[in-house]
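Dear V.,

Thank you for sending over the compound details. I've combined the ligand you provided, pyridoxal-5'-phosphate, with the protein sequence from our construct and run the structure prediction for the complex. I'm sharing the raw inputs here so there's no ambiguity about protonation or stereochemistry in the SMILES, which I know was a concern on your side last time.
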Amino acid sequence: MPIYMDCHSTTPVDPRVLEAMLPFFTETFGNAASKSHSFGWKAEEAVEEARERVARLIGATAREIVWTSGATESDNLAVKGAARFHGAKGRHLVTTAIEHKAVLDSLAALAREGFEVTIVPVDGEGIVDPEVVRRAIRPDTVLVSVMHANNEVGTIQPLEEIGRITREKGVLLHTDAVQSLGRIPFDVEALNADLVSLSAHKMYGPKGVGALYVRRRPRARLVAQIDGGGHERGYRSGTLNVPGIVGFGRAAELSQAEMATEAPRLLALRERLRRAIQSGMDRVTVNGSLTHRLPGNLNLSFAHVEGEALLIAMRGVAVSSGSACTSASLEPSYVLRAMGVSDELAHSSIRFGIGRFNTEEEVDHVGRLVVEKATRLREMSPLTAPATE
Ligand SMILES: *Cc1c(COP(=O)(O)O)cnc(C)c1O
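Below is the predicted structure of the protein with pyridoxal-5'-phosphate bound, written out as structure tokens.
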């Protein structure tokens, strides 16, 4: 059986989530927008219950949750929607070098429309300095977008400080909280977040469902990016994915109930894996802060080992090298680059994403396999092979 340890890319649907979803495909299949019969009412009721559950997980109210097709859409709606609404007031936007492509590419699209984008750097640990964000904000800045936890190195940003600054300056704060949602506490009030992108499939829910939190007080204003029947209070038209939304709600409820026990369990597994690898071989470095980090994330560089080769050698274990999102291009990860990691070490990086269904036995197996295969590859590397005259 292959071992799945790539939970930043996606997670399996929890069987309890699937169970909640199933009736909404065949029995309770109504359109939540149908107001004239019980099929529609039942679907709407289920959607509203899910809305409550997702809202509760982030300290919001149900009316602040807008359903989308996933966090890519949520990021697009937040960034483009806010910029285009406020474009007459100001055309400057601030973000960081390590955002998800859904944010960076949305900002690039806005730049082509005449918006100006300032990209603030991160330090060697993969953390943004809130004071650098403060200095980047200008009188014409309308939006700051800083992710909560990074999908490659798992670093958690000082959003509370950043939120205090954006609130003080009267600038909207968007955060992509896909990776932290359900894994570590997240509260829109504590962070002063105005717009928050969420995705179900990163937290044991189904793929193709997401949400955008849109603050009501003070109200965050957006231009819809998908027009149609005026669903979701006009923010996002389209017939709702009722089974998916029900699954998202159940997933939110489960991760909220289990977070207090699950986070320390994942942290213990992560540290067990890190110790096994770092005690089994030398010149293995951790990318990103170990303290401000998601419990299940481990990102390691193995000097003189090609990450892609290590992935192939570890057949049967699903992990990622470099960046899952850009690995098709074999460019070194832009996140690691922004942290000042050399191209060579970026190419030798492996990301482990430990999740709900991973066990101690799996971690021990993966730790042994990594040490064995990486040691072998390093011995074969021309950079480390003993000189042969
Ligand atoms: C996966 C991911 C996304 C995209 O979410 P989808 O629901 O797959 O579109 C956005 N941001 C981050 C940080 C992610 O990890």
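A first observation: The CA atoms of residues 174 and 195 lie 4 Å apart.

Warm regards,
I. M.
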